[in-house]
Write a structure and sequence with these properties.
Helix content: over 70%
Number of domains: 1
Low-confidence stretches: none
Number of helices: 10
Radius of gyration: 16 Å
Order of helices and strands: HHHHHHHHHH
Mean pLDDT: 80
Distance between the termini: 26 Å
Strand content: under 5%
């Protein structure tokens, strides 16, 4: 087991902790590191698998607070654009995909940090637009969560309701992304580290949920995500 394998497990652990704590953020934190370690296409796939697994664990606890009627248009729209995102991810050269992942994550971080409010992201039309953007970005770059976050901000969802709905969305959209692209091609022993990272991160996020102020957790997530995005962007641009 190499240092890169251990770093992969650590990235999954950190991403899983963040997602269990805030509802989104796995790919924002972990996808840039995964893209550098196992390549952009495989890194996005690992992020899809791990993010979906963390969402499923969280949903077991918060499923009663899911707004099913509100989530249906988001999930259906995402399912329609996942194949296009998978197609793009499969055909872009590695350096171009690295640049795209870095740019997408950085842009998503800045939009979420600024709390952008857009009238078009309200109501059923906003749900469809956010879902479509999230599905495409999830399959192509592993970062579908910020689109949902922007929709929730504009729909004025409280955090307590956002987290379980984000987990519901994460399960279905990541499952769609993996179905469209297949499982990551990792050696069997290496799978143990992401699996352990998912379990450990989900537990850590749950334990920290009542101890870390929401604002501090949000700042930490966005700072880590932006640093990782800029590293990946530099790798893609410089080769």
């Amino acid at each position: 087991m190499t240092a890169d394998d251990l770093l992969l497990g650590a990235a999954v652990l950190l991403g899983a902790s963040v997602q269990r704590l805030t509802g989104i953020g796995f790919a924002l934190v972990a996808a840039p590191v995964l893209a550098l370690l196992v390549g952009p296409a495989q890194g996005v796939l690992v992020a899809n698998c791990a993010s979906g697994a963390v969402s499923a664990l969280g949903l077991c606890e918060g499923r009663r607070r899911v707004r099913t009627a509100s989530m249906v248009p988001l999930v259906l729209a995402a399912a329609c654009t996942v194949p296009a995102g998978a197609w793009v991810a499969d055909r872009l050269p590695g350096d171009v995909l690295l640049t795209a992942v870095g740019t997408a994550v950085a842009a998503a971080v800045l939009l979420v940090a600024c709390g952008v409010r857009v009238a078009a992201l309200r109501g059923r039309g906003g749900a469809v637009a956010a879902g479509a953007a999230g599905g495409f970005l999830n399959a192509s770059a592993g970062v579908g969560g910020p689109a949902l976050s922007l929709y929730a901000v504009n729909a004025r969802w409280p955090v307590r309701e956002f987290v379980p709905n984000a987990q519901f969305y994460g399960v279905l959209v990541n499952l769609s992304s993996v179905a469209a692209k297949g499982l990551p091609r990792l050696p069997a022993p290496v799978w143990l580290l992401p699996a352990a990272g998912v379990g450990g991160g989900a537990l850590a996020g749950r334990l920290l949920g009542d101890r870390i102020p929401e604002r501090r957790a949000r700042q930490l997530v966005l700072g880590l995500a932006l640093a990782g995005a800029l590293a990946v962007l530099a790798k893609g641009l410089l080769g």
